[in-house]
């Protein structure tokens, strides 16, 4: 575990949000409260580091719901391991995202 | 309507920062996300696109083969210098041609002696740099000697580079000094440019393999500047065809010149494929 990348609190929070099912850039913004100028570069940086991977949803799904297709993000195996490490480092991480979800609901 | 126009324009302007091959997908992602943003927050959302675009620009890896002029091969280096020399001769003749018309003031009596003077000046300038050139020509302290054919080829390559450069310097001098003599600043600037160009020829010669004359690649720094008392500190470069390694000391001294270490045939397996580009 010593060679696992050390994430900042912001990146760990975003990883936690994606792991909790907020797989779009804007939903990550909403859950974490971070601005777009922080979230999107961080998503690209984590994708470059192979912690997450992105994929465009199918056009047929978007057409059926009459909206543009979105790009969604998923954790990779390395991302899941890194998130586990980050949870040890930031114990309140899971509670923080959960609390935001409760407040949002 | 106006808000939408402003947001799309903001995204379009920000997309100019994104590398062209990634621009279409980048702007598509931002536009699709914008569709879900409430109108009151959309403009702030789009302003964040600039930071994302900056990140894309900063972390964009451009393949070296697309941007660098290929000077690795000696033939390509000579071809580039020849093309520049031909271009400079063409420009010199083109700029001097109108002076032969009857309308122009008679200057022909001045051309021959001035031309000879300029040639003499260029030759004198070359003589001033001769010691540095000879220092390059000096065979490096090596554990293995370089064959006479390689040394001859290296010398011819150096002479050809200097000769092509001299023609460019001469054409520049003819164009900028002969038609209407300029001030001292022009002469000094021209001389400085000539010195820098000759300096490039010397440095380029130093960075080439003495056997195949290709540019050495993959430079790595060995040692640390703070421990130079008992340890060597410098750069090690490798021939892309595996002929050897060049050790260049970062601190010039009379006893530590460039060290060329030839690699034997047992190393050829490492360089058999890709000619060292994938090292």
Task: Write up this protein.
The complex is a heterodimer of chains A (105) and B (279). By secondary structure, chain A is mostly helical. Chain A has one domain: Winged helix-like DNA-binding domain superfamily/Winged helix DNA-binding domain (Arc Repressor Mutant, subunit A, Orthogonal Bundle), CATH 1.10.10. Chain A is built from six helices and two strands. In chain A, strands 1-2 form a two-stranded antiparallel sheet. In chain A, α1 (9-19) crosses α6. The radius of gyration of chain A is 14 Å and the shape is globular. The N and C termini of chain A lie far apart (36 Å). The mean pLDDT of chain A is 84. With 279 residues, chain B is of the alpha+beta class. Chain B has three domains: 2-58; 73-206, no CATH class; 217-276, no CATH class. Helices cover 57% and strands 8% of the residues of chain B. In chain B, strands 1-5-4-3-2 form a five-stranded mixed beta sheet, with no helix packed on it. The longest helix of chain B has 30 residues, at 148-177. The radius of gyration of chain B is 27 Å and the shape is extended.
Short overview:
The complex is a heterodimer of chains A (105) and B (279). Helices cover 60% and strands 10% of the residues of chain A.
Shape of chain A: globular
The count of domains of chain B is 3
Number of helices of chain A: 6
Strand content of chain A: 5-15%
Q: What's the number of extended β-strand segments of chain A?
A: 2
Uncertain spans of chain A: none
Q: What's the total number of strands of chain B?
A: 5
Order of helices and strands of chain A: HHHEHEHH
Please give the CATH architecture of chain A: Orthogonal Bundle
Q: What is the class of chain A in the CATH system?
A: Mainly Alpha
Oligomeric form of this entry?
heterodimer
Indicate the percent of residues in helices of chain B: 55-70%
Structural class of chain A: mainly alpha
Q: Give the largest interface pair and sizes.
A: A-B, 18 and 20 residues
Largest sheet of chain B: 5 strands, mixed
